[in-house]
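User: Predict the full complex structure for these chains.
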Amino acid sequence: MRLAAEVGIAKLSKHQEELCGDATSVVKTQNGTTVVLSDGLGSGVKANILSTLTTHIAAGLLRRNVAIEHVISAIANTLPICQTRGIAYSTLAILQIGNDGQAKLLEYDSPEAILFRDDQPIRLQREEHLINGQKVKQATFRVQKGDVILMVSDGVIHAGVGGLFDLGLGQEGLLEYFRQPCSSSETCEQLADRVINLTAACYLSRPGDDCTAIVTRIRPPQRVTVFTGPPLNPEDDKEAVRTLLAETNSFLAVCGGTTAQIVSRITGRELRTSTEYVDPRVPPVGEIRGIDLTTEGILTLNLCRQLLQGAAEGEELPRRRDGATLLAKQLWNAEEVKFIVGRAQNKAHANLEQLVHLAPRTYVVDRIAKVLAKRNVQVEVVYY
Amino acid sequence: MSIVNIELCAGTACHLMGTEQLLNSLENLQKRWGKRLHVQLTHCLGGCGQGPTARVNGQLYYKLTAEQLENTVNELLELERGAL
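Assistant: Here is the predicted structure of the two-chain assembly.
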């Protein structure tokens, strides 16, 4: 069975520092997913630059399908060593999950990642190599559906040192708290938030170091189907809805007021709208039984495109629960995406689109498809 | 005791023309009238060129301002109170 990985990241900067000295990157290729975590020495701007540089070099090489052993040795051989402390200016951990379930983990000065299977932590057998006089630990193993892998920076392991705890939270303390991650219905992002909230509490909300938690869950490839826009010919409404509902093993999203009304009319299911304005830039989400996400159309898609573009450039997707962010997260984490695009245009919207510089529906869907395709997501667009 | 039912259009055009501001302006009215005022957002009401649009007890109002909406609600509820 083909496998995929969902990744959730949460970060916390050292007390009174604006920038986090840890950097992360997730690279999706046709063969699988690779997660990179780097912790720059010290904190603030210097640490941020060091870790970002390390992560970018690693991600750039991984995108060109360079083997992770070569990536880590290239970085280990070039990273400067701190003269005072005799350690590298940045740590590095790389986790690679293949579509076939073959996984590889390399750690250079990083805390050990933990694999959970059926909620139990499993000790990974690691081999040690010396690269440029520095120890690099390597583990090769197989993953299966439901496995969860937790990677943290040392700020998490040392949380509360000299304060709440004599020696910090430690890996055992973390394991004590991070229970049942495999059977939890929480997303990877929520699980990572859970670790970071614990870390913040151990530091009594004054973190003594930058902290990062990355949670990776192994799951089957995820498919997302988005129906947006009324068909050009109203006679095709039924066919478009049928195409949407035929996607039984997929997350279903409907984007657009008229589109949602079409789905509601043809399925006979009530369309309800929330009164909660999460982000004033987009109208609240709606609800139709059997549809996982119902949103407004053109404003939501335009903001979703902006968010995805930002994510492609390394920005984090927000934690908000507005329609655009919820849609962007689903698309960003998907392996396969299908857009069912109706080309009829609301004439009243045409003027508004020009006034507020909104890209038309077909254009914005095309841009989203391009961003996703660059991430090796299989994208299909059907027009009506 | 009758209820005034307000449906504010949350479609694209009405949203851009100020549905959220209308919704926020109803907070004081809700404090005054409590459960007699029922507010919900709804899908497009078809007044895209004349937003923001609202349906109050089944009647459509276009290019609505917060003041107009407040007056309409107060009139409907005070009228009934006066008739009692």
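Chain B touches chain A at residues 10-13, 15-16, 19-20, 23, 39-44, 48-49 (CB under 8 Å).
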